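Backbone shape codes:
***
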Amino acid sequence: MAVALLLAAGSGERLGSERPKAFVVLGGRPMLQWSVDALRAVGAVERIVVALPPGMQAPEGTVDVPGGASRSESVRAALQAAGEGDPVIVHDAARPLAAADLFRRALEALDETGADGVVAAARVADTIKRVEASGRVVETPQRDGLWAVQTPQVFRRAALEAALADDAAVAAATDDASLVEARGGDVRVLEASPANLKVTTPLDLRIAELLLAERAGAADNIAVVRSIFDAFAGGVPERSFDVIHPDVVWDLREWPGWEVIGADVYHGHAGLREYWSSWLSAWESIEFDVDELRDVGGDRVLALLRVRTRGRRSAIVVENPPHAQLYTLRDGLITEVRNFSDRDEALRAVGLGAGLD
């Protein structure tokens, strides 16, 4: 099982706060609480250790330890207090937008690659200049291959412990992955969103507030879509119409074989009832296995699912191939559903390419 080290010992000076940065209220809760909640949602995380500034208390259910004089000294202190656990997640509490899925992906990447470390990072979008103290530009490196490193950073415990044993390097380091790299360790990059920003200035704090509010809206959209499947599971599909817009468009054009049922596009509640009635009449029972509901932006939710049906006359159980639905919402109501027989086609339709990343 993994252990997570949450670094929350920084001051709030550049943020203009009288309290330590990690305890500044963001979205109605202390900033570090967002990271704690995300880590708690990761089943592989057994323990969370928080490196704290003097006089502050860690959230309930976590282990607290005094922070060190430098970032990596705080990591070393937290690791020593963590007890057993491998791999090790290191995360900055000042990055409150890291979602549970990013932590899971980092752990999976470490396991899949066999590397010593995996770091979340975003591709550099701006032109970068290397500048002398005088202000003279001495180099403009190509952006290809340049990444802005974030956290979480995930390490095999032995590699991280060995890297943290060098006192001089630890005192100067601003990034734990660089310590592992300096010892010849294999560190890989995991692409993450630039929205996983580090809150340093009042502007960063405002942007984080806006992004968290947007995420709350995305969570609401996912809950709306989930209620469709809950209605079917409860045997009352009619309840779905509570969250379906009266002018909904149910689009089957990306589902070859739709002509067996009838039309390729159905409109409104009446059309959807017609489609469902035709479809449901052939089966004694229908079970949905929802593999994932993912917010893909623009008030859209992608559902990756499988359907198991039992014939009304034959009683034969049919396991349908994995497929996908793309839901579009407006003001909390579903306005369009595109059905895909091919998941990769659905992923390409939302700009994710083939396969989830």
In short: The domain at 2-198 is CATH 3.90.550.10 (Spore Coat Polysaccharide Biosynthesis Protein SpsA; Chain A).
